[in-house]
Amino acid sequence: MPATRHELVILARMGEITLKGLNRGAFERRLVSNISRRLKLLGSFSIACRQSRLWIEPQADQADLEDVMRRVADVFGIVSVSPVWRFKGNLDMLVEEAVAFAGTLLQPGRTLSFKVESRRGNKQFPLTSPEISSRVGGAVLRAYPEQLRVDVHQPDITLFIEVQHDYFLVYSRIIHGYRGLPVGTGGRGLLLLSGGIDSPVAGFMMASRGMELEAVYFHAFPYTSDLAKDKVLELAELLTAYTGRMTVHVVNFTDLQITLRDHCPPDMLTIASRRMMMRIAEGIAHNRDCKVLVTGESLGQVASQTLDALCTTDRVVQMPVFRPLIGLDKNDTVDLARRIGTYETSIQPYEDCCTVFVAKHPRTHPSLEDAAAAEAGLDIAGLVAAATQQIEVISL
Ligand code: ATP
Ligand code: MG
User: Fold this and answer.
1) What is each CA distance from 393 to 207, 215, 222, 344, 396, in whole angstroms?
2) Distance from C-alpha of 231 to C-alpha of 350, rounded to nearest angstrom
3) Domain check: are 235 and 327 in the same one?
4) Longest Cα–Cα distance in the chain
5) pTM of the model
């Protein structure tokens, strides 16, 4: 086997960013800085952005490349990641390197099927793409006649070849990312984060559009145990893999819940409590420079998420409320929760304050008048101010 001339580099492909016009540079810089932050603990890397692609090179061999690639693929703005051999040279060298690369993919005792797919960026190169594929494919097959056979329809392995002006690439793996836009390019929002399945997914979705998030959790100890709070913090921690650093505001909601329970008709308790959450959240959002509230609500999922209930809830705030799950089926939300790794934590059985205080039959179509009547006589501003003074701020 010839001495290798290649460098092992991680190639990361950008998606929507490449459609940006004048401010594309800002998006790219943010993407690079988000990736650097995710890789900081894994060693030292050089990250360069060239021709709509990012090249990530470990500066020493110490890094676990699988971990590096997973982390890069998880950064919003990345479409896919491949470990590639990159080298310079002529056609003979390309063939030699491709044969050596194929050698790393063999599995003892198995015959694998393969095909070659070539792309030619350098139109001066003497062979066309199909000619490159057939030249490389032929050489690979001659080198490993027992271990490989050709199948162009459903191969076990695809050997990708790229011929560019100043380098060749050979690779076979494509690890898919979450696409989207880099966190930090889409403004700031405040996520109402409960211990359930939905709100972490809602946070993930907004972050995937570039939104930077803070979170607020309403805790009603001892009606909700501190285990419920730990669970929310664990969810927030899991989200930081996608969102970057996050601040969680834990509001002591106990006194307020008791006041509402003693004051409101039971069938309006859930709505009244959600309206209070919104008011308090809006105050926090103002202070923290967040322009929207984000919740995990989905139309019709439960009584407090009918159109009437959502409208009644929104009325108490000026800020837009983003509900990225509004049109999603619960099963799709669950699938996404599994994929992003929050599901197992979400289904741990700690109650949240809404389940403790919830009425048997909450009003499903509350009007604004119903809500106003339920709150009549309450010192709303005073209650909001009191709760706002009991906030624990936790930085993750
Ligand atoms: P989730 O699965 O996110 O808990 P859910 O389907 O249980 O949602 P609700 O309990 O009605 O629905 O809550 C609707 C939304 O209100 C949640 O997605 C979340 O954004 C917010 N929310 C509910 N309870 C709390 C809480 N204790 N602290 C912060 N936000 C909350
Ligand atoms: Mg819930």
Assistant:
1) 21, 10, 19, 25, 10
2) 8
3) yes
4) 87
5) 0.91
Burial environment of residue 134 by CB neighbours within 10 A (0 to 12, 13 to 18, 19 or more):
middle
Pick the ligand that lies closest to the CA of residue 358.
Answer: 1
Identify the residue whose C-alpha is closest to ligand 1 atom 4.
196
* Domain membership of residue 21 as a residue range: 7-178
Query: Over the stretch 276-297, which tens digit does the pLDDT of each residue have?
Result: 999 999 999 999 999 999 999 9
Q: Whose CA is nearest to atom 18 of ligand 1?
A: 296
Q: Are residues 171 and 148 in the same domain?
A: yes
In this structure, the chain runs to a length of 396
- Cα-to-centroid distance, 220 and ligand 1 (Å): 14
CA 219 to ligand 1: nearest atom: 27
Ligand 1 centroid to Cα of residue 194, in Å, is 5
Ligand 1 pocket check for 155: Cβ under 6 Å: no
Q: Which of 199, 225, 246, 292 to mutate to test the pocket of ligand 1 (most atoms within 8 A of CB)?
A: 199
pLDDT tens track for 329-350: 999 999 999 999 999 999 998 7
Residue 62: pLDDT band (50, 70, 90) is low
pLDDT of residue 22 exceeding 90, the answer is no
- For the CA of 192, the nearest atom of ligand 1: 30
Domain boundary among 129, 160, 178: 178
Question: How far, in Å, from the CA of 329 to the mean position of ligand 2?
Answer: 16
Helices 91-103 & 129-143, crossing angle to 10 degrees? Answer: 50
At 19 the pLDDT is 81
Q: How far is the CA of 231 from the centre of ligand 2 (A)?
A: 12
Instruction: Based on the fold, state whether residues 272 and 372 are members of the same structural domain.
Output: yes
Q: Render pLDDT for 209-266 as a digit per residue (tens, 0 to 9).
A: 999 999 999 999 888 889 999 999 999 999 999 999 999 999 999 999 999 999 999 9
Distances in Å between the alpha carbon of 338 and those of 334, 341, 346?
Answer: 6, 5, 10
Domain count, the chain: 2
Burial of 165 (0-12, 13-18, 19+ CB in 10 A): exposed
* Order of all β-strands in the sheet with 212-219: 321-322, 292-294, 188-192, 212-219, 247-252, 391-395
Distance 367 CA to ligand 1 centre (A): 21
Nearest ligand to the CA of 228 is 1
Ligand found nearest the CA of 300: 1
